[in-house]
């Protein structure tokens, strides 16, 4: 039973659907004002009150997009999907599905520590399963489908970055709650650094 190979295209299609649904659900957490509210409070007051919701939407959408692109890149190197990879993928998707809730929980209590720590935990666990998938695929496919040693290190470095940033942000929230909200910026900056660093190494090896 453990040697069963599953249809890779169906798993990619299912995963894409989960990612796209989760990303779409993020916008549903931003309440749409009615005409009476707009007349009473004004457009800018209403939009100002929803700034935390828009921050949550943008951050969660972009981070989910990063994980989705990483998933697409990784699956390119997979020759066949066995039970272990399938279940790693399922647990990854479980925490992707949870993200609209954790985002709404966080932005609904924007300045409270507990909801933000839970949000960071959610994103860190997505990062963890992303890393476990990468590590398993590298072990299984390295050297077979164009997955070179440098490419494997590049994938792993990006994955570890995702875990590290959200764990640090969650811990900092307990001590420096305001500063911790901006730590996510380093996620994108470090990704740029990792991409540049490994691109130079890949160019040298050509």
Which term fits the overall shape? globular
Main sheet specs: none
Roughly how many Å is the radius of gyration? 19 Å
Q: How far is the N terminus from the C terminus? A: 41 Å
Number of helices: 9
Topology pattern, helix = H, strand = E: HHHHHHHHH
* Percent of sequence in beta strands: under 5%
Number of distinct beta strands: 0
Helix fraction bin: over 70%
* Unreliably modeled segments: none
Overall mean pLDDT: 90
| Protein structure class | mainly alpha
Q: What's the structural domain tally?
A: 1
Give a summary of the structure in a few sentences.
With 206 residues, this protein is mostly helical.
What do these coordinates show?
The chain has 206 residues and is an all-alpha fold. It has one domain (8-205). Helix content is 79%, strand content 0%. The protein is built from nine helices and no strands. The protein has helices at 8-25, 35-41, 43-49, 51-75, 83-108, 113-141, 149-173, 177-180, 184-205. The longest helix is centred in the middle third of the chain and has 29 residues, at 113-141. The N and C termini lie far apart (41 Å). The model has no long low-confidence stretch (mean pLDDT 90).
Overview features:
single chain; 206 residues; mainly alpha; 9 helices; 0% strand
Helix and strand layout, with pairings?
Layout: H1 8-25, H2 35-41, H3 43-49, H4 51-75, H5 83-108, H6 113-141, H7 149-173, H8 177-180, H9 184-205
């Amino acid at each position: 039973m453990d040697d069963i190979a599953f249809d890779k295209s169906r798993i990619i299609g299912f995963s894409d659907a989960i990612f796209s649904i989760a990303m779409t659900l993020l916008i549903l957490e931003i309440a749409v004002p009615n005409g009476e509210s707009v007349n009473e409070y004004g457009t800018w007051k209403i939009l100002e009150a929803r700034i935390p919701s828009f921050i949550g939407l943008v951050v969660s959408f972009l981070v989910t997009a990063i994980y989705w692109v990483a998933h697409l890149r990784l699956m390119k190197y997979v020759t066949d999907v066995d039970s272990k990879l399938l279940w790693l993928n399922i647990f990854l998707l479980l925490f992707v599905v949870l993200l609209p809730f954790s985002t709404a929980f966080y932005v609904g209590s924007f300045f409270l520590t507990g909801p933000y720590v839970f949000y960071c935990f959610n994103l860190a666990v997505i990062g963890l399963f992303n890393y476990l998938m990468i590590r398993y695929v590298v072990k299984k496919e390295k050297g077979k489908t164009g997955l070179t040693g440098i490419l494997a290190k590049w994938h792993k470095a990006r994955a570890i970055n995702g875990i590290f940033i959200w764990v640090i942000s969650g811990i900092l929230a307990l001590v420096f709650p305001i500063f911790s909200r901006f730590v996510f910026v380093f996620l994108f900056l470090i990704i740029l650094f990792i991409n540049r660093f490994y691109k130079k190494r890949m160019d040298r090896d050509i």
